[in-house]
Amino acid sequence: MKKIQLFLGSIIFIFNGAQGQPLKGNLPDCDQSFTGPCYYSGPVYKNGVVSKDSYEGRVQNKTWNGEGKYSFEQGSVYEGGFRNGVRHGYGVYTHANGDKYVGQYLNDKPNGQGAHYFNDGSKYEGEFKDGIRQGFGTQTHANGQRHVGQFLNDRPNGQGIYYFNDGAKYEGDFKDGKFHGKGKFFFADGAYYVGEFKLNKFDGNGILYSNNSTIINKGLFKDNKFVGASNPSNESAAKPRNSGEISNANKCKRLGLIAGTEDYNLCLKAK
């Protein structure tokens, strides 16, 4: 029987933030006889001194309101909506290094649907909250590999699918950008593993199948290696015996842990 190498390649999620520099400064008064928004094109004043930042667009109450273009001294440019001096609505922020964010802003930060394109060819398209990836989205790396699923705190967390550029893929739980929890890993040659993962590795109860769905190994895995059949006595020994243990057991089940595994037993013992 063909020996299958249990190895998951390095998966890296890097995000430099999409919000860009905060807006600073103020603008000269409009003509006092003009009650609505007026148009301004020129330098931005900071602490009463003319700066090298500039603004071109609608102005009201001595600040940017409406559509406009703000250019920073170091080369970054924002074009889009403003409200009371901050980015608000749809906008495009082009960083000095060539990165670009296109999408919705709320209170000066990306919020809602947007896309961040990086100068190395990678990109993220999906939901943002307060300037970071949060919600459903797709992260595509420069090498073509991509993650599709839920993001939390700027990293894949929850359910998702990771596609490798050789045809392999992972479907299941993510934690802080890693395969962690229950999932399925499909090798490029058609073989697959179904079971528990820990920090990107087969770890816990699982079944390894060949490409014709014949079982190769069934039982406990550790660090991508099959270590032996599951021990039914472990599960019976881990059964709760009193109200305190029953409460802990319910908590462990809610965390998605499987009775009889090392993580489950540690969870049961936790105060």
Task: Give an overview of the whole structure.
The chain has 271 residues and is mainly β. It has 3 domains: 17-125, Single Sheet (Histone H3 K4-specific methyltransferase SET7/9 N-terminal domain); 143-230, Histone H3 K4-specific methyltransferase SET7/9 N-terminal domain (Single Sheet), CATH 2.20.110.10; 233-269, no CATH class. It is 10% helix and 51% strand. It is built from 3 helices and 17 strands. A hairpin with a 5-residue loop joins strand 3 and strand 4 (77-83). Helix 2 (243-254) crosses helix 3. The model is unreliable at 1-10 and 233-240 (pLDDT under 50).
What are the defining features of this structure?
single chain; 271 residues; mainly beta; Histone H3 K4-specific methyltransferase SET7/9 N-terminal domain; 17-stranded antiparallel β-sheet; 3 helices; 17 strands; 10% helix; disordered N terminus
